[in-house]
Amino acid sequence: QVQLVESGGDSVQAGGSLRLSCAASGDILADYCMAWFRQAPGKQRDGVASIDIRGRTSYDDSVKGRFTISRDNAKNTLSLQMNSLKPEDTAIYYCATRRGGYCPLIDPPYRSWGQGTQVTVSS
Length: 123
What we know:
Elements: E1 3-7, E2 11-13, E3 18-25, E4 32-39, E5 45-51, E6 57-59, E7 67-72, E8 77-82, E9 91-99, E10 112-113, E11 117-122
Parallel strand pairs: 2-11
Antiparallel strand pairs: 1-3, 3-8, 4-5, 4-9, 5-6, 7-8, 9-10, 9-11
């Protein structure tokens, strides 16, 4: 079982940037699909971005061109660079993993989740 710990959440003004990190332990992430999800108050948890074992990425339309997902297999970490932040990006952000090559922006099939990190964007 992979353990995940997110960090980097903060409060910023609209137009600002944040970089989220997800540190993994318990297995080698090179064999895992990885993704970021977010959940705003009163809303369901939605997929934001994913990256497969070959480094291919997928993004939700709402963040394309603003967010960049990346992974460092040597350090067992996942990152999300968020630029041009908007108030509607306010949410708790979670990283998730699953073993294998299928990396959808929906859940299931993710098996491991972090505890989340809060991102708040003010106008």
